[in-house]
Every structure is written in structure tokens, then in C-alpha cells.
Amino acid sequence: MGRAPCCDKANVKKGPWSPEEDAKLKSYIEKHGTGGNWIALPQKIGLKRCGKSCRLRWLNYLRPNLKHGGFSEEEDNIICSLYVSIGSRWSVIAAQLPGRTDNDIKNYWNTRLKKKLLGKHRREPRNRGNYNIKQESDVNIGNSTDGDSSSLSLVHENSRTNQQQQQQCWPQNITMPVLPLPLTLPLPYTDHDPGFNDQDSIRKLLIKLGGRFSGDYYHPALDGLNLEPSDGQQVFQDQQVHVGSSSSSSACTATVSINNNEVQFAQSGDQCRYFGAQGSGVNTLLQGHGSNLTPAIEEMVPSDFPGGLEFLYGEDMIDHKIIESATNWGETSTSIYHHNSLASNCQGLEGFSYPGEQ
DNA sequence: AACAGCCTCAACCGCCGATGC
DNA sequence: AGCATCGGCGGTTGAGGCTGT
Question: Which residues belong to any copy of the HTH myb-type domain (predicted)?
């Protein structure tokens, strides 16, 4: 037997709200509050609406100090950055953008930013004062010139300066920003814990750090890994996570150290060609096994896309600045790392074509 | 002007966790 | 402990408006 419906669907009005309904709901809540019971609210007011519908209408539309449309570039950046790091947790993202609702951001992402990332939009957006798509960057795929012809890298040609910034997409030692949440993560590994056998757990950890799994690469360094999550949760700060095979003396070890709000990847061992010597850096490790990285991004980036999501983690991602921000993620105040040019990089993907594609 | 296709976004749906009984 | 209820969340839908032909 299923769960009882929250309201009598037969006697509940659906569809767009009328101004009268809005006025009723708004005036009541402004006078009396929600009373902590949305389900009972419509009956008190005399609205033939589901309580959940009232809640949604209030939160997404009637609530004071809401902004609609006109996302600024800075908001774009924040959304991009947070989406890359935490995925589609719209309520969390919305908490960082005063006046924005999760629904708003979700819609904006799905209709604009996602396409902006891919450069799929066909025409200039309508009625968007702050929204301005510029085609200022070209992105090419080319062989890196660092002496390793086997590695591919993205070349950003920003602002048509012709100054190609060829970069290895995931350098051997890269410092990535730590995004502020969740401040506690299931930490999948400790040195003394023999139960480190859950690849999904480490995948999740690495995903939090911004990795990608395509499933296209088998990675021997992950073979036989013990990735069982430890009991409970550990504070995901100022810790080191050693990613490597405990069973192989010659295994490459990727060290993910989290200190002072920075994540550092480093690797050692004679199998490190998988990690950096061939130019793919730790990301190759990250590409080891099937993915649950923010599915929308995964979907946007084909599995054979050289370098995976590195274009989201280019140099600019490293050169970050901090935006101080209050957050709802916990009781402590924390910081967002604002990737200054992420969105412009996204814009730069306009006109990008995949290998073999015209 | 008419039509078709595209785009946006408000609203709905269903699931899940928390809470109370 | 088990169940019912509620709030909250993310995914999806569809009506209406806009644009291109």
C-alpha cells in the first residue's frame, strides 16, 4: 500500500497561480507565518491548493527579496564552480546566492549555463540584461609541446590574443581549491584500515575534488584497491589520503593532501606514468572506473573527449581567489573558492568541436 | 501573416529523510 | 519498532512566448 497523498488531489487546483491566490497566500503568510504546517495552510486561507504547491509558490515566487532573471557573471561563476564541485545540489548552490531560489538556479543551469558550457545555444538570449554571451575564446585540441607527444591538452585562445596557453590538463603536482562543502565527507581511506576496497567511495572522494571518471580507462593502480569507507564520517580537512595499491610495492601512489584549505595532488612510484609522466596527471587515475561525476557534466563531455573535464580545471582553476561568504552548509562560516574565469572558459567552448567533428 | 520549432520557467511529481505518535 | 505525516529536494513537464523562415 502506497503512501497516503498529502492532499485530496481531486479537489485541488493545479496550474498557474492567479493574482488573487497569490495575494491570499502572501498576505496570510506575512501576517501569520506558515504556522509550521504547509499542508494545513491552504485550508486556513481557503485556497484549493496543495500545501506543497503553496510552499513552492511562496518560496519560489512570493517570498520577499527574490531576484528573478538577470544572473550576473559572478553568479554564473559561482554556479559553475559549485556545480562542478558538488553537482546538482541546487539548494546548496542557492544558499550561496542571496535572492535566488534553487528552482531558479536549476532552470538557469538547465536552459542556459549548460548550453553555455557546451556552446550549444543558437541565438542570443532574450530579455537578459546581464546575460551576455561573448565568443572570445577558442578552444582547440592539440598535442602538447612539452615533449610528450602522446598527451593531449586543451589550448585556450583567450580574447583572440593568439597567445596559446598550452597546458597539461592535470599537472603532476597541482593545487586545487577546496570547495567548502561538505565539510564532512565519508573519508574512504585510512592507512591502517584494511577495508579500503570500495572504489566507489574513493571515486566519490575524488569527485568531490573535481575528478572525472569516464569508464574508458582501466587503471591498474586501482586494481585491487581496498576502498572500503571507514565507519562514520571524518572531517574532510587537513588530512592526507593516499591513493594507491597497498598490495604492490611498485605501485604508484597518489597523495591527496588537504592542508590549509588546499588540496594537493602528488604522486610517486615507478608506475607513475599513469599519473603524470604521460601528461595526464592524476586525472588519469581519476578516469579509472565508471563515473557518477555530476551526470550532467558527464553527459556533456563525451567519454572519448580527450582529457575529460580538464577544460573545467585549467590554469584558471588553480589561480583562484576566495570569496568570503556566509553559508548554510554548517554552523561555521566558510569560504567559496571563486574560479574567476571558469565561466569565461565555458564561454570559450563556443565553437569548440570534438575531434573528427566538423 | 502564418506556421513551426525553440526556449524559458513556473509548477508538478515522486522520492527521501526527519519527526512525531 | 513501525507507521504516518510532513518538509525539502532534484528531476521533469508543458504552456506560453519568442524567433526564424
Answer: 9-62, 63-117
Whole-angstrom distance, CA of residue A142 vs CA of residue A50: 56
CA angle A329, A333, A335 (to 5 degrees): 85
The total domain count for chain A is 2
Confidence of residue A10 (pLDDT cuts 50, 70, 90): low
Q: Calculate the angstrom distance between C1' of B21 and CA of A55.
A: 25
Same domain, residue pair A188 and A334: yes
Q: Which nucleotides of B are covered by protein (CB under 7 A)?
A: 6-14
- The string of pLDDT tens digits covering residues A83-105 is 888 888 888 888 888 889 888 89
Establish whether the CB of A110 is closer than 7 Å to any nucleic acid atom in strand C. Answer: yes
E strand or H helix at A52, and its extent?
helix A51-57
Q: Is residue A119 part of a domain?
A: no
| A171 and A50 within one domain | no
Q: What is the CATH number of the domain that holds A24?
A: 1.10.10.60
Domain span including residue A285: 167-338
